[in-house]
Design brief:
single chain, 500 residues, alpha+beta, Arc Repressor Mutant, subunit A, 4-stranded antiparallel sheet, 5 helices, 13% helix
């Protein structure tokens, strides 16, 4: 799996050069005799390695490193030269350079060394030069007349002006009215979906309709998906997914109050749906419980204040919700709901106010991960101990994420998706023993936000959401434990009864 700052392969360099010419995925696939899905996988790896967020940024990096040659006066071979490169501390060193010897070229940051292979020495690690592999140097450009230089400069300025006018504004700009609870991604991004490419990701039956910002809960061998956004409207639909038959059913008992961005948690056979964005676009305080035994809804005590985009999780017979957006802004509130007494109580506030975070129970702690606040996504990792009402901090996510999903399988947590304000090239797995997040493959290239996630004993499911400007109907399962060990059982535990 690709890692940030990892060198590109020859195939990836070919694709980068074609991307820089403006070629689309289908054109690249045709020219390199690859399938479009293979091109998408390569693009995902390229974005991750270069830490780029768009095809334009990939092109800029390619031009800066010399991987793309512009306006060469004659045809030259595009094949990169092969040189012997020694790997030192994860970086490339110059060929035939011995440790402790000075470079003959007199390397410095102001005067970098250029090798015969066209590599540029840009810095040193452990007193050895670090080289960036690039394409062969182009032939010298002919001298241009002054009027041609003026025309070229004018054309460059005009191009930059057009780009500034055509490229959409950064979605994290709160001054432009950005609201992560209401925005419908409409700007399709490059590198569309990559279905089931990763080793443990598998597609299951798609939902009957594409939807996002839904709530999902497992009860026995069934998963219930409630509400969300469908066809630009807030829905009260209740969908049931059968694990054993891999089938979906649209139930005829919709939620009384349609909502999106709601919290949901199951206690016994009841699914409690808290708050959410109603069909007016405002947060609501409504709490309704769905009885999975007879398919009926009942009203419960309302939230202490209207909320949407909060994280919700059940710990025993108590439901906890964290943060969210109220009608006055993003909050740091922690509330607990006693399902036996039908009462809400206020708990210790979160250290960091946020909305669109995700929560899961692991041991005696409730982990609250990621979120959105003050116009940006957060990498925050905090945990709450309900017995003492104490907050603690854990290692932050590798990249900021909001509108994500969080799963718990075994002793690990899995942060899935995100990308409200930027590109996400991988998911993450958290090990509480080492307090460390590590990269986890993803079946979706780009952003994967407003998803619904359900944890099961050996796997977790991810439903719908937004990606690349599209609302999704996909159902994915990630199998954490794929091997099962069967221990034979003997009829008698008494060794004396065993036959030879």
């Amino acid at each position: 799996m690709a890692e940030p700052k990892e060198p590109l392969t020859e195939r990836e360099l070919e694709i980068v050069r074609l991307v820089s010419t403006g070629a689309g995925n289908k054109e690249i696939a045709a020219r390199l005799v690859l399938s479009p899905n293979t091109v998408k996988v390569h693009l995902r790896n390229i974005f991750t390695k270069l830490e780029a967020t768009s095809r334009t940024e990939v092109s800029m990096i390619a031009f800066r490193n010399g991987w793309v040659v512009v306006d060469k006066p004659q045809e030259v071979s595009a094949a990169p030269q092969v040189v012997d490169v020694e790997v030192v501390s994860g970086a490339h060193s110059a060929p035939n350079h011995k440790q402790g010897e000075p470079d003959a070229g007199g390397w410095s940051e102001e005067n970098p060394t250029v090798t015969q292979a066209g590599e540029i020495v840009t810095e040193r690690v452990n007193n050895l030069p670090v080289v960036v592999p690039v394409a062969p140097n182009p032939e010298p450009l002919p001298q241009q007349s002054r009027w041609k230089k003026v025309m070229l400069a004018g054309a460059t300025l005009l191009t930059l002006l057009l780009v500034a006018l055509l490229v959409p504004a950064n979605r994290s700009d709160t001054s432009a009215g950005f609201d992560p609870l209401r925005i419908v991604p409409s700007q399709a991004r490059t590198g569309l979906l990559s279905k089931g490419e990763a080793s443990r990701w598998y597609l299951r039956a798609p939902m009957p309709t594409s939807r996002a910002r839904s709530s999902a809960v497992a009860v026995g061998n069934q998963i219930y998906l409630i509400g969300g956004e469908v066809n630009q409207t807030i829905s009260g639909d209740v969908l049931r997914y059968e694990l054993t038959s891999n089938t979906w059913t649209l139930l005829n008992t919709p939620k009384t109050t349609p909502v999106a961005n709601a919290g949901a948690a199951a206690v016994g056979k009841l699914i409690y749906v808290t708050g959410g964005t109603d069909n007016t676009g405002n947060p609501t305080a409504v709490v309704e419980a769905y009885d999975t035994t007879n398919g009926t809804w009942r009203s419960m005590q309302a939230l202490p204040l209207p909320l949407a985009g909060h994280a919700a999780v059940a710990d025993g017979k108590t439901i906890y919700i964290f943060g969210g957006s109220s009608r006055t802004g993003i909050t740091d509130n922690t509330f607990a709901y006693d399902t036996e007494t039908n009462r809400w109580s206020q708990q210790a506030a979160m250290p960091v106010p946020r909305s669109l975070a995700a929560a899961e129970v692991l041991g005696d702690r409730i982990y609250v991960i990621g979120g959105y606040h003050d116009g940006r996504e957060l990498s925050t990792c905090e945990y709450y101990i309900p017995s003492s009402q104490v907050w603690g901090t854990c290692a932050p996510l590798t990249v900021p994420r909001s509108s994500l999903g969080l799963a718990r399988v075994g002793s690990s947590l899995f942060a899935i998706g995100g990308g409200v304000t930027g590109f996400i090239g991988f998911n993450e797995r958290y090990d509480p023993a080492s307090n460390r997040w590590t990269a986890l493959e993803t079946p979706i290239t780009g952003d994967w936000q407003s998803i619904a996630v359900v944890s099961l004993p050996t796997e977790f499911y991810v439903f719908g959401g937004y990606s690349n400007g599209e609302r999704l109907a996909f159902s994915y399962v990630y199998e954490v434990f794929t091997n099962r060990v069967y221990v034979p059982a003997f009829l008698s535990a008494d060794p004396g009864n065993r036959k030879p």
